[in-house]
Design a protein that fits this description.
Helix content is about 50%, strand content about 40%. By secondary structure, the protein is α+β, with helices and mostly antiparallel strands. The chain has one domain. β1 and β2 form a beta hairpin. α1 runs antiparallel to α2. The mean pLDDT is about 90.
Length: about 70
């Protein structure tokens, strides 16, 4: 789990966020549907990325000492 948190934190620092495509139905008339694809972007705050790295390192060190 610690390695995953460290990797996710590093990716958050490097990319600063991620984007995805959301498909919604704009209009539906009988059997005909009009779908719209919207690109959404989610920013990952710096403190969240740094926190994930810190918790990951803590977990790695804590498990290593056992």
């Amino acid at each position: 789990m610690g390695i995953i948190l460290v990797a996710a934190g590093c990716l958050g620092l490097v990319y600063g966020g991620f984007s995805y495509t959301k498909e919604t139905t704009a209009m539906k008339v009988g059997p005909i549907e009009l779908k719209v694809q919207e690109k959404e972007t989610v920013a990952v705050p710096l403190i969240v990325s740094a926190g994930a790295i810190a918790i990951g390192v803590f977990l790695l060190v804590a498990v290593g000492r056992r």
